[in-house]
Amino acid sequence: MRFFKKFRRGNGDIAGGSGGEDSLESFDRELELFRQQMVPPDHFEDGFSWNSLLGALFLGLIMVPGAMYMTLLAGQGIGPAAQWVTLILFIEVARRANRSLGKADIFVLFYLAGTIMITAGMAHGQFQGGLSLLYFQFLSQSESMQAAGISELLPSWVVPDDPAVLEQRSLLMRAWMLPVGLVVFRMIMDRIDNMVLGYGLFRLTSDVERLPFPMAPVGAQGILALSEEQSEESQQEEGESGGERSWRWRIFSIGSVMGIAFGAIFLGLPTVTGAFLDEPITFIPIPFVDFTQQTGNYIEAVAIGLSFNLGAVLVGMLLPFWAVTGGFVGLLITMIANPMLYRADILSSWVPGDNLQQTFYKANLDFYFSFSIGIALAIAIAGAYTVLKRYKKIRRNREMAGSRGLKDDYPIPKSRGDIRPRWIFFGYFFTSFMYMVVSAFLLYLTDGSIYWPVVGIMAFYAFIFSPVMSYMSARLEGIAGQVITIPFVREACFILSGYTGVAIWFLPIPAQNYGQMAVFYRQAELTGTSFRSIWKAEVLLVPIIVVGTILFAHVIWQMGDVPGPNFPFASEWWEVIAAQQSIVFSSTLGGFSVFEQALNFWYIAWGLGLGVLGFLIMGGLGMPVFLMYGVIRGFNQTLPFMILPQFFGALLGKFVFERRYGVKRWRQIIPVLFAGFSCGMGLIGTFSLGFVFLANSVVDMPF
Q1: Is the residue at 6 inside a domain?
Q2: Given pLDDT bands bounded at 50, 70 and 90, which one contains residue 239?
Q3: CB under 8 Å to 318, separation ≥6 — which residues?
Q4: What is the CA radius of gyration of the chain?
Q5: Which of 107, 255, 272, 606 could make a disulfide contact with 677, Cβ separation 3.0–4.6 Å?
Q6: pTM of the predicted model, to two decimals?
Q7: 701 found inside a domain
Q8: Is residue 3 part of a domain?
């Protein structure tokens, strides 16, 4: 117990005082490293300019196809790489023209790059833009969807039922008009929702409640570092010291060389050879090596695999140590629990010889589908408890400050570019209304009538559930850098509505969590970027995103089947994703379904009870917040192929590099090193993709 007392003293309250941000006590020391690192400036600048237009066009033409291709190839985009490459390119061009980019200019470019890359790949486990169309055409051929009787029920506004579509592999056919139109509608409405409701949540949590948002400085510091580099370059030209500049660029260059060298083997070789050969040559397996069939005789029903992606090791160094450690502990719990569940005849579907994907799917069907609901509910309860506890403390501190005659006034600079609250309500009401109108029209198009209970569900989501959950999530982000979610609410609402069919699962329903957008606005504030420049950039983004992702999805599909031998990640995992979705989709078909087989309320109760008990025990011992969330999330059948390299990287960072350079110095180095590595990987990916487009542009002549 002496260790735990010492541990608790070392991770207890750090900051005290009365009123304002200083009154927010720290959860633990590691969280304190990410908290209160930056103070917003007094003046804000407009970062939207011709540089923004050129940057968006550069990303749309060069980076978007690379991001989409790499998502299909390796399950990872080139988002960080695209962001850093764009910034460095434009900074260097500006230097050649004897100009410099301000912090606001750099932030807008960084935002444009990040948003375009997200919509060109995956976000929150779902395919975005043109990739969603490629995934929908796969669903019509998926073995899991066909076995569940879902493929033939897919509406024509999701995927055309014309056989010529699969023969021609073209998104530019008339049959794709409705699916493409629906994707465009979703992209536009999602962008408006994100900006409007995210801004409203920021005003509540940051301006009114003045929460610290401990993770916001992590993204903002990189922007300021690049801006400072330009200032230091000017100082060096004037004869002043440039030592601070030299170490950043040296670390970035080292990371870039690492990314280029590793990326040439990991991504470049299979991409280039796949363009000219029937089967690509692969030295490092993508996305992982599967050992499950060999280990199944010793560790029953446990999915065992290992990724050799160096990027995962660097991510482990970059993430908080206790968060990665929590994930590793969760993996160990899975490796112990699954054989016990198998011998207890709970994981009864698993048989020796199943590979990683089959083992994961069967364990999910037998137990973890329901158990994970309970775990997620426990995390949501813990998050809500944290929010309420912190809210009471903030109110108490403000009352104490008021009783002492202290002013509680933090004026907002006029140059920040804020808008009146009524426009927030009007914008969100407009998008929600459009969601309901379009969904009602699609239901009428499919069934010949409007099923009004579904419209009622949309109203519940739009005006009650999404705003409340987004606010709770934004508050938890502001306090602890964590996200709160309650799982399967949408699924439960759909099932209880009594609707029969699968069209309901593809309707554009406003069921998103916009809490993380509050962190983005906080980053813009920390970098001194006017919010008006962000909104102007959004107007520029929409047409580039819409045209770019759909056009390049068409080009990629023309190259060959998706999934196919040239896309290992899609070939390995799309069927697993479809199998999991078929469980849920079957719940509205009527009669007994796979969903009913997978849903077990006793297992949900187990997950909820163990999750809450885990929080109580670890909280009582004073364990770090990141560790608690990592362990509890790890109860949900942690997959090993990414956790193991991340944990190896976390150990290297904690016990080797932090001791060598010091904690503060290492925390300055590793983001720059990872940015350089991402840049190098992205350059190799984009360069290799050029060979793919070159090979597919060759036309065989008849003579």
Answers
A1: no
A2: very low
A3: 653, 670, 671, 674
A4: 26
A5: 255
A6: 0.71
A7: no
A8: no
